[in-house]
Amino acid sequence: MVKRLEPILPGSYLGILGGGQLGRMFTQAAQAMGYKVCVLDPSADSPAGSIAEQFIQADYIDSAALKKMANLCKSVSTEFENVPAQALDELEALGVFVAPRSNGVSIAQDRVAEKKFLATWKEETNIGPAPYCVIEHDADIALIAADLFPGILKTARMGYDGKGQITVHESSALVAAWAELGKVPCVLEKRMELDFEVSVLVVRGYDDEVVAYPVSQNIHRDGILFTSTVPAPSLKSGQEKKMIEAAKALIRKIDYVGVLCVEFFVLKNGDVVVNEIAPRPHNSGHYTMNACVTSQFEQQVRSMARLPLGDTRLLAPVSMLNLLGDLWFDGAIDKVIEPAWNKVLAHPDTKLHLYGKSDPRMGRKMGHINCLGESLNQARQNCAAVAAELG
Ligand code: ADP
Ligand code: MG
């Protein structure tokens, strides 16, 4: 039996480690519900720091800063998987309710630990990771089986949006690829024949209540998410249930409280492979902000405030379009333009979200648009039209 703990009610401070766009959307959701928010981020100017009631500019392992946060906040969560486990442990030791705790975040922030964990999980769910091996020493390279090629070499830590990854076609190219990544610990993963990619958001409360959102189908461009569409157009019957059950089993297995995203690959032969997990709300879950009863950010608030979780029901088909900094450059890299928001806003069934970032850069996530429709086709057409208008 889980001991019932009092919920943390509106009016209280909630804390968030990291001040990026995920922290900003969390802050907006919390404030809409009447909470106050304290953001901790190392940089002076951050999307969440600029709108929170309290902003602490400090390193994540600055003990004085963590103490200040603990004095203010009854509960703290993270928007950033690379926040040191030590920071979460320190906050917990100061009596703060930390959700998720450091164990779940540690698994997700290290691909070696993550793959190992996902591989053991396969026995229960029948969904495992792609074949892989770990490279930590020069000697590891000689031992690699030929059938892992072509493969993708990924740094164990700090990779995101396809960064820190090199495709390696044969074993002879591996030495140079590993040197290019700085000989840091890596995993080499077999490159799979993907049919399509999907993700599942699951949320768990402190009392073991678990809810899942409908599966989202994701298209990436240059390793960065481009669109997410729900309901997932290519899913075959039975696949959605299997993935949701697997994601629910996984969140319980980690004993994780909060919002967790599980990315899957569906292969050309119909097999399902688990790619990675993210210990926070996820870009592929931004559709929930306008298309579901409860957004993923409200769920983050609910889980950390020990409230009952919200309804995950999809209210309308949706296609989310990511807005990258590239849109601000019309061909010439030295000339910044403002995208044609008037055209986007002329669509009555699109929802524009901009993250308040002042300097657009190529590949930088600046915002997203949720394109709704009465039917899946309408949502997708709406999204294609908006994408074409933005150029
Ligand atoms: P990131 O942390 O950057 O999101 P991922 O491991 O999810 O890293 O890889 C980014 C993208 O690269 C995936 O969404 C997928 O499109 C492609 N990819 C990654 N691993 C594989 C693989 N083993 N086989 C085929 N494609 C892959
Ligand atoms: Mg990924």
Automatic annotation (TrEMBL):
Protein name from the UniProt record: N5-carboxyaminoimidazole ribonucleotide synthase
Pathway(s) annotated for this protein in UniProt: Purine metabolism; IMP biosynthesis via de novo pathway; 5-amino-1-(5-phospho-D-ribosyl)imidazole-4-carboxylate from 5-amino-1-(5-phospho-D-ribosyl)imidazole (N5-CAIR route): step 1/2
Reactions that this protein is recorded to catalyse: 5-amino-1-(5-phospho-beta-D-ribosyl)imidazole + hydrogencarbonate + ATP = 5-carboxyamino-1-(5-phospho-D-ribosyl)imidazole + ADP + phosphate + 2 H(+)
Subunit structure: Homodimer.
Binding, ATP: R111, K154, G159, Y160, D161, G162, K163, G164, Q165, E197, H220, N275, E276
GO MF annotation list: 5-(carboxyamino)imidazole ribonucleotide synthase activity; ATP binding; metal ion binding; phosphoribosylaminoimidazole carboxylase activity
Gene3D superfamilies in UniProt: 3.40.50.20, ATP-grasp fold, A domain (3.30.1490.20), ATP-grasp fold, B domain (3.30.470.20)
Family according to the record: Belongs to the PurK/PurT family.
NCBIfam families, per database record: PRK06019.1-1, PRK06019.1-2, PRK06019.1-3, PRK06019.1-5, purK
EC number: 6.3.4.18
Biological source species: Polynucleobacter brandtiae
Lineage: Bacteria, Pseudomonadati, Pseudomonadota, Betaproteobacteria, Burkholderiales
Pfam families linked: ATP-grasp (PF02222), PurK_C (PF17769), RS_preATP-grasp-like (PF22660)
The organism's place on the tree of life at top rank: Bacteria
Designated gene of the protein: purK
HAMAP family for this protein: PurK (MF_01928)
Enzyme superclass (EC): ligase
